[in-house]
Every structure is written in C-alpha cells, then in structure tokens.
Amino acid sequence: MYTNALLTDFYELTMAAGYLERGKASETATFDLYFRHNPFKGGYSIAAGLEPAVRAAVDCRFHSDDIRYLKEQKTPTGAPIFGDRFLDYLASFRFRGNIKAVPEGTAVFPDEPLMQVRGNLIECQILESVLLCHINFQTLVATKAARIWEASNHGAVIEFGLRRAQGPDGALSACRAAYIGGADSTSNVLGAARLGIPARGTHAHSWIQSFDSELEAFRAYANSFPDACILLLDTYDTLHSGMPNAIRVARELQQRGHRLLGVRIDSGDLASLSREARRMLDLESLGYVRIVASNELDEYAIADILARGGRVDIWGVGTNLVTGSGPGGGALGGVYKMVEHNGRPKIKRSQDPGKTTNPGRKRIVRFYGADGCMEADALCEDSEDLSAGELSVVDPDDPGRRKKIHAARMEELLRPIVESGETVCDFPFLDQIRGHCRKQLSLLHESHRRIHNPQEYKVWLTQKLWLQKELLLN
Question: What average pLDDT does the segment 365-378 reach?
Fold first, then answer.
C-alpha cells in the first residue's frame, strides 16, 4: 500500500535525486512558505493548516511499496529514472530539520513567511509540495470563513459544503479550516466526529415530497425530532404554504412542551422572505423560532441580505465556502522559495518586482498601537536586535519611503514548531485556534476587514534586510 510520502510533485523527487547525484546531500538550505496576494481581493488572510502540514512533514517515510513504485518509473527510452542509490536514500528518509511557523488562526499578510523550513537541502525540498498543499487550501478556506463571519455581523454560520467539496479529503480539510475561520458547526458528520465540531442539519425537499402534504411532512419530522426540529419552507411556497404550516406545527409542539428550533429558506429573495417570515412568527408569539438561510451564499450575498433588512439568524454556507470561490479566490497561490543556501542568503530575481524574493532567514515583527490594535508588520533579518523597541524600516513598494516605527507593543510571529525533526510544541485544540482567530480579527482595524476596497495592511522591511536585498540585486 502506498503512503502519503508519495503525496508530492514528481519534480521534487527528480530534484532530490539530482542533488544526491551532484554531491549536495550534506548541503543546507532555508525555505520560506508565503503568499503574494490576499485571496478574495481582501485585506487579510487567516493562517491555517499548520498542524496537518507539520504532522505530514515529521511522519514522512517511504515504505517498500513506495520505493517499488518509484523503481518502476522509466524514461521514454525505457531506462530507470531513479537509481538504486537514491532509492536507498529514500528508504531511510526522514525530516531532521527545523520548522518555525506563524500560529494557526493568526491574521497574516502577503510576503510574510507562514512557515520557515531549515535543514538538509534534500529533506527541505521533498517537503515542498505537501506543505503547500495543506497550508494553501486551509488558509484559503479559513480566510473565506472569516470573511463570511464578519459579513454576517458575527452571526451563526453552518458549514454546508460536503457535497460540493473537492473530494472527501477536500471536504474534511475545508471543514477544519472553516471552523477555524468562523463557522460554528458543520453538516459533515465525519468531520464533526474527528474534529470535535458540532454537527448540525435540517432536512431536504425530498422529505416533504415523500408525504402527501407539506403539513403531514412537517408534523412527521417534528414528531421524530421534537427538540431539534428545523423545517424547510420553500418546497411549494415559502410564505403561503411553508410558513403557515410551520406556524401550525410550532403551536402543536408548544402544546406538548417542545419548541420549534427554526425554519429554513433555501430559495428566492432571502432578504424579503426572511423579513416577512420574521413578521409572521412574531405575530404568533414565536419570536424564539430562528430563521436559517441557505442557497449559494457568500460574504457578498450575506452583506447584501443584511443591508436590505434581512432577518436571518443562521447562515448555511456550502459551495463558496469549502471551494474558496469568489472574486480573487479559487486558490491562495502560496509559494515555497529558497532564501538561504549553505548559510548564505539567496534571492530570486524577477522582472515582476512582486516575485523577487526577500533573502535570508527572517523574523516577523508585529507592531501594536496604543489602542491595542495591529498597526503594521516588518520582516527583519534573523540576527537583528529588537530590544531597542523601535525599528528603521523601508517600504518595499516604494524604497524611498523610510521611517522609524515606535510601537506600544511588539510581537514576534514565527514560533519554533520542529527542531531536529521532532515537534517541540503542543498543538492547540481547534476551539483554541478558533478563539485566537476571533481575537486577531478584533485587533485588526475595520478598514482592513471590510469586504469592499479594504485598506492595505503594511508589511515593511527593516533597513538592514533591505540593504541585504539591494546588495544581492546589484
């Protein structure tokens, strides 16, 4: 049986084999994993996927079936692609290097290393694809979930995306990331069980259609689940059939000592329908019945519904959340670039200035203002002294713009996660990561969190790091 060690791009293995053949087995390197643009044309991202990424790295082992498969790979002329020496190397492979990373749930910004991987060149190279796979997707979905939660005015969000996710693995990863970013629960039962997330659901239109009448269907569901009943209103007519029948069943439940939990609207003008549904429920003294909305929702639709006076209590969000779709979405676009080789800073040049890398091992410093909110971040060289409480910084987009930053508080974001191939931290529980995410959002100015035209959050380079970059460019 093949293992997850093969969850890599083929070129990672051909490069690794080439490094070994060219005598580079003892060389060292440092790689930064980062992204160049916030997804969804937003003002921030939420780091996620660290724990599964790190576990994939430290647990990576090539078993006999993996080695046999690679041994069978041939060139177009029929020659083996991988020699015995490299296959023997893989048979004893394990990552023995160091990893620093930004904690999951942290607000992060373009060009900041979410992860810094340092160690043997071949080991670091082999990890590239699997680390990007975990970090890119979960950061994308966690960011989408945070935007949805913000757009809902911090309302209740159910992740409904299992059936639209990119396969079972994508569904489970999205379930985890969505909870970090702001979802309160999930319809994905396996995800709920594995991750300790509340499982929630209602029923489908097929339940209604399987009975002779909508009222009979509602009564049957309420009798089966008298304390967990949410009724789907729009199989026939939301306001003229669904709502009157739901109100009737709510009264019947009330007479038996139970309460209807909610009603769900899955089509139509959700703003006007939810307003009228709320009015009808309140007229019947059913103010405790909550209104659930679903149907291709995202942060833009939710914001529009609320702006038009919608009265939704719970948002069921599926496709657009678990696929990370929307303007500027679809993929995070994170990259993994070498920034140091054998102890010497390295740089990647590009005619596109945004693709020119920042060389050397770095730290990320976050500055907080007197109000406790985030003001800016700075990348600095790993050896810089930060004890003075101020930094001379350069705007990487406009190098002529320089200043000294004095902050009420400074925080370093990269934390030791793996040392010499062993994890050196306790991974927090998912609820703790989710709480950290909400705290981070509360410390980020609204101008960076807004959905439309957010203000750029500045990531500076220290003067020392900028001079190093200039030296390597010239």
Answer: 95
